[in-house]
Structures are given as structure tokens and as C-alpha cells.
Amino acid sequence: MDNIIIKVCDFSKTPGSRYRDEGKKAHSGQEFREEILEPSFKIAMANNQKLLVDLDGTIGYGTSWLEEVFGGLARAYGNEKVLKTIDFKSEEEDYLIDDIKQYIKHAEIQ
Questions:
Q1: 31, 62, 63, 88: least surrounded by Cβ within 10 Å?
Q2: pTM confidence score
Q3: How far apart are CA 41 and CA 23, in angstroms?
């Protein structure tokens, strides 16, 4: 079975705030996690697939956006499941992958 691929740039070239309530066109991390990442993550887990998140093609990321997306997912599902299921691609800013993995590893389940 093929991997599931999500390109963040298809969501927004300008990922923005952490939360939805910070503006209608904020392209928030919460919105991306709830509407795009989490549904694909659930499918990947159910089908024993990998989910590849392609981080290239945006103007950049705020740390709060990244933490909300990936730390938020880890808080909901556990960091081991998230790290086992998701792979990342970033040819433009490869350090992002290490940063994201740290957000996942340090997320506390609520």
C-alpha cells in the first residue's frame, strides 16, 4: 500500500498562527491538524501506512504553528505512535525535521 502524502503548501503557502481564533485567514496550526493531518493520520494508522508530511513550498513556519500541529497530535495519540506513523520531507529547511521531532517527543498526553 502506498504512503499517504500531505503537502503543507497545498494547505497554505503562509502557515500562520497557532489557534483558529487568531483570525479567519490565519492558516492556523490547529486548523491544519484538525482538518488535514489528523484525518490522514487516522487512515495511515488504520491501514498500517506511513504518512509523509512534505514541508517544502511555504514561506516558513513559526514555532507555535509547528508545535500546535505536531505536538498537538502527539498529545492526542502519544509520541511513539506519531513518530512511528509520520515521516517528514524538507529539502528547503532540513533542520525543521529535528525541531518537529523534538516537539513530538516533548509533548505530554492530555
A1: 63
A2: 0.94
A3: 26
- Alpha helices (H) along the chain: 8-11, 29-32, 38-46, 63-66, 72-77, 79-85, 95-106
**Separation between Cα atoms, residue 1 and residue 59, nearest integer Å:** 32
Q: In what order do the strands lie in the sheet with 86-89?
A: 4-7, 51-54, 86-89
In this predicted structure, what is the pLDDT of residue 99? 97
Which residue's entry shows cell 528547503? Answer: 92
Q: How far is CA 66 from CA 41, 59, 69, 76, in A?
A: 16, 14, 5, 15
User: 60: which residues sit within 8 A by CB, 6+ positions away?
Assistant: 15, 93
Q: How far apart (Å, rounded) are the C-alpha atoms in residues 73 and 54?
A: 16
The contacts of residue 2 (CB under 8 Å, 6+ apart) are 49
Q: Which three cell numbers stand for residue 57?
A: 513550498
Q: What is the pLDDT of residues 28-84, one digit of tens each?
A: 999 999 999 999 999 999 999 999 999 999 999 999 999 999 999 999 999 999 999
